[in-house]
Amino acid sequence: MKIFQVFMTAFKLGCTSFGGPIAHLSYFHDEYVTKKKWISAHAYADLVALCQFLPGPASSQVGMAIGLSRAGILGAIASWIGFTLPSAFILIMFGLGLSYFDVSHHKHWLHGLKVVAVAVVAQAILGMGKKLCPDKERLTIAAITSVILLFFSSAFLQILILILSGFIGIYFLQSKEEFPHDSIHKGKKTIGFIFLSLFFAFLFLLPLLRTVVSSHEVQYFDSFYRAGALVFGGGHVVLPLLQAEVVPTGWVSTDLFLAGYGLSNVIPGPLFAFSSFLGAVSSVSPNGWTGGILCLVAAFLPSFLLIVGALPFWEGLRKSQKIRKAMLGINASVVGILLAAFYNPVWTSAVFSPKDFALVIVGFLLLEFWKLPSWLVVIASVAISIVIYI
């Protein structure tokens, strides 16, 4: 019964939570803390703090953790399925629909999706920059990260920069943030150790398996698992990692990639569900549904293993000053990764004319200053693009 309650509550949130991860956390607080009282306000804030430390989609991990405390591991799974199902279904259906049509015949509104993605990412960078780079030291980390990745872009280089930024944070940055404390069901440390071991086992063994097994399914799972395992800062940061995996390999064209990313900002639910669209439209996928579900599970599996594995150890981890300082550096570097991705591929693949630039300005104005929801801005931008690009 509790598992069904967890699923239905998460499903309702998956159908109504527009606006990205920060907005999702507000919806979650209203539902889980205020209305249902499944968790206290302090315990909820504690979970949010933990999920900011971990790679992966923070809002989805918070939902999994609440499902875990409510109904065990099956509750965590039910929470993830409920929250992710609506957006994944829409994105797979959208991808399958595009697969039956020549993208060039729909270039006006598809281009509108790509252009409005520029405004959405710009707003995300600005918002994260204000929060994560409030001083000159962290601004410098972000700027250096961006410059390096603009000249030498690769997924492994991003990982190296994140690690180095963590060490810089330990030795040169100061953390004054105190996390609230309250009790929450965390599970046994033995179970946590098993799940953390599985996380690292998949991370290191999948690339080896990929080299010895000639299978597109293994390649998919490795690429999307690695992207989900190495993303700090939320859904928008997964964009450059996924782009590096699927576009240069020829699995997904740049047009389809940005069209799907634009749509994922219209619909409710986690931005990581974008992985289901990429699996559905991949040129080497034997079946759209199979590819979509496989990539979706691979992208979210790391966050599931991490949240179940980390909760039993969080009490000690949250007290470590070095961990807090490392995260300051890592989060600043995340802003730099976003900034580099903003130029390539987001800007370079969408803005070609004064009309494009004008649409970006209007979209950014509506998002940042008029505070309109992103789904409404995307719909309006697509409608405008159909008119101005004819």
UniProtKB/TrEMBL annotation:
Parts of the chain that traverse the membrane: 73-96, 108-127, 139-172, 192-212, 289-314, 326-345, 357-389
Keyword tags: Cell membrane, Membrane, Transmembrane, Transmembrane helix
Pfam families: Chromate_transp (PF02417)
Its membrane topology: Multi-pass membrane protein
Membrane found in the keyword field: yes
Subcellular location: Cell membrane
Main location class: membrane
Family: Belongs to the chromate ion transporter (CHR) (TC 2.A.51) family.
Annotated PANTHER family: CHROMATE ION TRANSPORTER (EUROFUNG)
Protein name from the UniProt record: Chromate efflux transporter
